[in-house]
UniProtKB/TrEMBL annotation:
PANTHER family noted in UniProt: BLR3294 PROTEIN
Pfam families per UniProt: Amdase
InterPro entries listed in its UniProt record: Iso_Racemase_Enz_sf, MaiA/AMDase
Name of this chain's protein: Putative asp glu racemase
Length: 245
């Protein structure tokens, strides 16, 4: 798709998330009016490994929200969420397949699959993980990435499970988390791994300060949506080096 044409991006959002929409709109503002972004929600209120929390991510709920985006005839759909971090990458791969099948052919991606694509392009296997999550969720994310051949060199998490509260994490706290993980030798990249963190707008500052790529999961899904439809992502400035890939 040529960068001079119009593009409609559909984004799936956890219901209790208040960061994705304003950040995504700001991120894409330089491409307006040619690029528009449209949102659909499904219920997510808690992040844990309990059966009730895991059931929030059943495919039928997400596919119903995706179909609403298809009604708007979007060109690509992105799940702006990191649940594959504890459910497994294959879960998101199957979700994307089902979204495309259910919506009559609309391509799909997710924050986590997009993050992994960015890691691959950067040839990064050793990274630091910054999240707001509780202990067992964080441990599961580390385990899944380790089994996939990555090394989580350092991690920081805030032990929060109520999703709505995550958006209240302030800039000072995020700065401290990133500073903490960057004390470890051998970190080749940092990911802020939660789409309810207000972190994407700080990526360029952190990259300048620490000299490594910082990949935020609100931004990764937007980057991959643009790449999937052949749009020039490098036109987005001020949101990190990933958009130059």
């Amino acid at each position: 798709m040529a960068s001079g044409s119009s593009l409609k991006i559909g984004i799936l959002v956890p219901s209790s998330n208040t960061a994705v929409e304003p950040l995504t709109i700001s991120l894409l503002s330089s491409l307006s009016p040619n690029v528009t972004v449209h949102f659909s929600r499904f219920t997510v209120t808690q992040i844990s490994l309990s059966p009730d929390a895991l059931s929030q991510f059943t495919f039928d709920r997400i596919l119903a929200a995706a179909q609403l985006l298809a009604d708007a005839k979007v060109d690509v759909i992105g799940w702006s969420g990191t649940s594959a971090g504890w459910l497994g990458f294959d879960n998101d791969e199957e979700l994307c397949r089902l979204i495309t099948e259910t919506t009559g052919g609309i391509p799909a991606t997710t924050s986590t699959l997009a993050l992994n694509k960015a890691f691959e392009k950067l040839e990064v296997k050793d990274f630091a993980l910054v999240t707001p999550y509780i202990d067992d969720v964080q441990a599961k994310i580390v385990d899944i990435y380790t089994k996939a051949g990555y090394t989580v060199k350092a991690e920081s998490h805030l032990k929060r499970s109520e999703n709505h509260s995550i958006a209240s994490v302030d800039e000072q706290t995020l700065n401290s988390q990133v500073a903490e993980v960057m004390k470890t030798d051998g970190v080749k990249a940092v990911t802020t791994f939660c789409t309810n963190l207000k972190a994407a707008q700080q990526v360029e500052k952190w990259e300048a300060e620490y000299g490594v790529p910082v990949l935020d999961t609100v931004a990764t899904v937007v980057w991959d949506c643009l790449k999937i439809v052949g749009w020039d992502a490098s036109r987005i400035k001020g949101w990190g080096k990933m958009f130059e890939l």
